[in-house]
Amino acid sequence: MPRLLSVNVGLPRDISWRGRTVHTGVCKEPVEGPRMVRRLNIDGDGQGDIAGHGGEHRAVFVYQLDSLQYWRSELGRNDLAYGQFGENFTVEGLADSEVCIGDRYRIGVALFEVTQPRVTCYRVGIRMNEPEMAALLVKHGRPGFYFRVIEEGEVEAGDEIARISVGAERMTVFEINALLYTPGHPRDRLERALRIPALSAGWRKSFESLLEQQRKDGAANGNPGLVAASGPPPAWRGFRPFRVARKLRESEAVTSLVLEPADGQSVVAALPGQFLVLRFGPASAPALMRSYSLSGNPAAPSYRVSIKREARGAASSYVADQLEVGDIVQASAARGSFTLRQGDRPLVLLSAGIGVTPVLAMLHVLAAEVSMREVWWLYGTRNGREHPFAAEARLLLDALPHRHSYICYSSPDPGDRPNVDFDAAGHLNAEVLRKLDIPRDAEFYICGPQPFMDALTAGLTALGVARAHIRTEMFSAKPGSTPGIAPVTRPPPHLPAGSPDTGPMVSFARSGLNVRWEASFPSLLDLAEACDVPVRWSCRTGVCHACESGLVAGTISYRPEPIDAPTDGNVLICCSRPEGDIVIDL
Predict the structure, then answer these.
(1) Do the strands 375-381 and 347-352 form a parallel or antiparallel pair, or are they unpaired?
(2) What DSSP assignment string belongs to 428-492?
(3) Of 253, 328, 333, 350, which is the most buried if we count CB atoms within 10 A?
(4) What is the mean pLDDT of residues 99-114?
């Protein structure tokens, strides 16, 4: 009969790793005597990153003696002890190839249910002093699994483990793990997995994504089970030539470019809120690569992007001062997931500064269809000189029967007219939203500087708006997100020391950085880190689970032409160097 060999616990602590401080509970040590197991944890145990670990469906991590012995042999190590893999229970028996999701086991007086395979992360590599350990666990098919606590009670090393019932569909931990992480994803097995009531929500969502892709496309392309939604696939790969048909001054600092295809083909209609990646610049210098939201009607026969001139901004200065009507720029297909959703809910379009562009495209679509939805247009800027598209927005709003508009100038000029050019002096903030009594059941679209979006998101949440109804978009790279790692002040993205002049060109579009990838950087992530490009989830293993942590994760397949990366600036990178140039939206 299977037995509980060791109960292992450990509270989170700070560990030094690669010059950073990691707050983690991965270090577990065996304890003697009975120990109380509760719904969320074992007494004396804890997790450092509760977003990616712990919770009701991951209360207890189980690993097998057989796997421990396997790794001793595989790695040639005799120092692997109980708790080495961060497990709470080291057990004899209960192989991943035998235990099924939904199986229930009695240990001591507590009752447990198997919910999912373990999703490994970089912390197990820290504990093992083996950076590739997370990937090795998946590659070798030895993940271990999690218990949910059905009945609380005491357990103790030496307790027998009795199976009380068998899970629905009888799919093993090994099968479920392989279904997500290995190629193929057979439809019948996905459907079987989704019929298991005990399967945790994160894994269920991943399998639903895989199944939905097969229903739409007929076959899996990539692995949507490991990535966050990134919008529909782009209409073409790489870049197409576009001619600057018009160049328009929208405000003191904003210039619009109207782009028409130069290759004889028509434009492809975009979704309102999407963006293009443009490549341009003088022939005497490396090409500039930037992403810009479409600001015009997405169904128009041309594309319009609007660019704010930034201090020391190479691309925006080039557009304002050197780019001429008739010049050719290279444009990617429209992409992005910050897009207008269909429905009957009220809409609140909130923006500040140049953040107006994607929500203006949404307003164009709403006006063109004379939407009967209640639409709130809320915008903040400094003054009339820095207020682009003022007349255009008013004209579009006039076409909407159920419209509301409120404009805030934080520093109005003497000639700016209250109640004509703007409605209030001051910043557009949560207090303004409270006074306007905006509908709490609306869909909210927010674009602007990160502090603006963070403050409004927090304010809306405090007003009772569901977080699922708040969508945000920013133009620069999002700040790095490395769960469990203490934050440090990092410089802006820059070329690495001793910038190479060979290797494929990598363009970090949102960070505005072009750099050669040469052999001293083993992976693209290493190159990004050397350039201080913020990466939202910098795991190299390619096995992290987007739905478990709420973070984007996934791998990218590199091709000789520019490729499509996740569209919100988030990317997990696990690869070797390619042969061609690369565009990454970071």
Answers:
(1) parallel
(2) --HHHHHHHT--TTSEEEEES-HHHHHHHHHHHHHTT--GGGEEEE-SSPPPP--TTBPP---PP
(3) 350
(4) 97
Which residues 6+ apart lie within 8 Å of 23 measured at CB? Answer: 12, 13, 14, 15, 48, 49, 484, 485, 486
What is the token pair recorded at 451? 């502090």
CB-CB contact of 62 with 2 (8 Å):
no
What amino acid occupies position 6? S
The span from the CA of 493 to the CA of 513, in Å, is: 7
* pLDDT tens, residue by residue, 312-339: 888 899 999 999 999 999 999 998 889 9
Tell me the C-alpha to C-alpha distance, in Å, between residue 380 and each of 108, 366, 390, 451, 455: 62, 21, 11, 13, 14
Radius of gyration, CA atoms only, the chain: 27
Helix (H) or strand (E) holding 107: strand 104-107
The 10s digit of each residue's pLDDT in 223-265 is 555 555 555 677 888 889 999 999 999 999 999 999 999 998 9
Q: Measured between alpha carbons, how far is 55 from 40 in angstroms, rounded to an integer? A: 6
* DSSP 8-state assignment for residue 138: H
pLDDT of the residue at 230:
53
Q: For residue 324, what pLDDT is reported?
A: 96
- Rounded CA gap, 430 and 457, in Å? 8
Residue type, 556: I
- Does an H or E element contain 370, and which? none
**Residue 411: per-residue pLDDT:** 96
Which tokens go with 400? 């909407």
Task: Give strand ranges (E) for 303-352.
Answer: 303-308, 328-331, 347-352
Amino acid identity of residue 336, one-letter, is G
